[in-house]
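INFO batch 0412 | record 1 of 1 | parsing
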Amino acid sequence: MSAAQVTGPLDPRTWLRDGWLWAALLVGFVLRAGMLAEWPQFECLRDECIYRGMAVTILEGHGLATSNKGWLPSPGYPYLMAASRAFFGSMFSLKIIQVFLSVASALMVYGITFDVSDRRAARIAAWLFALNPTIAWFTNTWWIETVYIFFLCAAALWMLAARRNSDLGQAIVSGMMLGGAVLFRGVATYLPPFWVLAAIYPSEGDPFRWETWWDSARQRWKTALAFVVAMALTVAPYSFYGSTHYGGFMITDATAGHVLYLGNNDFPPLTFDYGNGMLTQPVFERYLSSGRRPCNREVPPVQSSSCEVQETVAWAMHHPSAWIARIPVRLAQMFNPNSFLTRHIRWGYWPGFPWWAKEALTVTIIGFSSALMLLGTIGAWGRARGPYAMMAVGTTLWTLFTIATSYGMTRFRLPLEAMWTVYLALFLANPRACIEAIRQDTWRLVGVLLTVPPVFALMLWYLPTGFPAFW
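INFO prediction complete | emitting tokens
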């Protein structure tokens, strides 16, 4: 059967016939596996050590315990680390699993883009994801992002499939996948409304009219309900367990107070990126000692987190100008086009890597990040519409809100880079059509003018930190 005769963009048989996709997946696998084999990272850094310590506690039969800072993360990653040790004899094996999960995410980004646009854009998206150096390198870490990206992409892809095929089973899978994302990262707790909007998004008519949405909701409410029930049932067992063991009602984590404490305090806004953060424990401790004391960490984590939230609200009310002034700083910390990979190579974790290659890789990281943030945003304004826009744009806006109110790191941007890869691919596949769509709709043009220049300015804020010569 020729490519023109396949049944649809979400039919895997369509994907299997695309040699460009297979090439992208192969290159993506070699890149990830090659970094893991050449520069394996056996030791942990910061949050990695916290997750590893929690995994050890789980293996010892004590269940999920709080960190030494008193906060309780979502259970997914510590339990996954523990399972890797139990089944394969080493937590390092999780990094091998993450290589395959990341390649699978590239495949799903291809499918999403194919559904949103066409095969050409899908191929570009798959290659962009496969070659993204930071996304590739994160498979060699014990940070949540690789697994979280997998769940987000899976939840989005299955929702698109559920709509296209009118299949409640696929809506259930989408709900389970987003539930998985919540179990791995608490910030995903508030994403389901965007998936519900995607489920009921009108296939025809004016999407700016309430009547159109109402008519579509009457037709698609079963899809939305199946998604919500599946997601709730995925999360509910642990939520019930956590609420009865950790001091009060919780969904999957009790970290909100902790991050608010770090970002809303008497010390300057902190982060952990190279040249722009608390890179050593002594510096970090000096920072913390200059601010207000944290709430009692000996009480159950839900109560400790609730106390920190109350303290943060009180601090913001007493320092309104300082709180507002920190918003662009936090956003600039996230929009910093460097990444944790920049920090890694600058710290010398890749022995034998020549200096010129370090500089080239640093520039490549900046190039990928800049293209995603600038051209991807232009692509979103020009081409973002339909169910995927509800999920991708909604996830982005919610993440930006959490960053603006807490603290920023380039690591928090990585899931957005995965979702924004679709829009960068749409722009690169047909920039003329994208620009023409922006020119035809005044509100899209206004959106570009209101977002792209500020994003560019925020990117420039910490751009030099990737190059020690500019410090």
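INFO post-check: Confidence is low (pLDDT under 50) at residues 1-7.
INFO record closed
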